[in-house]
Fold:
Amino acid sequence: MSVKVILFDFDGTLADTFTAIVKISNSLAGEFGYQPTSAEKLEQVRHLSSREIIKQSGISRFRIPFLLKKVQKLLREDIQSLTPIPGLIEVLNDLKYEGYQLGILTSNSAENVNLFLENNSWVKLFDFVDSGSPIFGKEKVIRKFLKKHNFNPADVIYVGDETRDIEAAQKNTIKVVAVSWGFNYKEVLAKYQPDFLIDEPQELSEVVSNLDNSKVKSKVFCY
Structure:
C-alpha cells in the first residue's frame, strides 16, 4: 500500500471536545425534545453505535441537522478553551516530516476547525479541511473529497473515534484507523472491524510506517 494522504475526524480524534459537546447538548435538550444526559447514562451511550444513540434519543431525524448547527454555533463560543488530544502534536509533526498530506474531514463546521487550528498553531500541518453536516453522510463527504482531489482510495487512510467513521471509510474502501481515546469505547469500535484500533497517538505512526515507506519531503514543526 502506498499511503499518501491521512485524513482525520476532528471531534474526539484531534480535539478534546467531549465535555463541551455534552454540556451544549444538555442545554439544548428542552428545545429539541430529548432527555439531558447524566453521567451514568453517558457511560452507557459511549458503548452504543451512532445509529443506536440517535434511535434511543427519540430525536426526529428531520431535526438533527438543526440540532447540529446549533451545537456547532455554541461550540464556537468555547473554541478558545478546547485542547488537542495529548501526544498528537508529535505524531502530526512526524507524519508531516515524512511527506504525508494531512487533512480533516468532519461533521463539525470548517469555521470551528480552522479557529481551533489557528489557536493551536496547527494551520501549517493540514493541507485540507472539509466538512459536511449530515451525521450519517460522512461517506458522501469522503467520496466527494476523493473525487475533488483525484485521490485513489488505496492511497488514503482515515482516522476517527466513532462507529460512523468506520462505516464511512469502509463504504469508500479506504483503510480506517479507529482511536479509543474519543467518544466510542474500544469494545464497540472493535465490533465494526476497523483495519486498525489504537489506544495511543504514537501508535498511529507505527501503523502508517508498517503500511508505507514514503521518503522525507518536508519539515514543518508546530508547538
Observations:
- The first strand starts at residue 5 and ends at 8.
- The first helix runs from residue 18 to 27.
- The chain has eleven helices and eight strands.
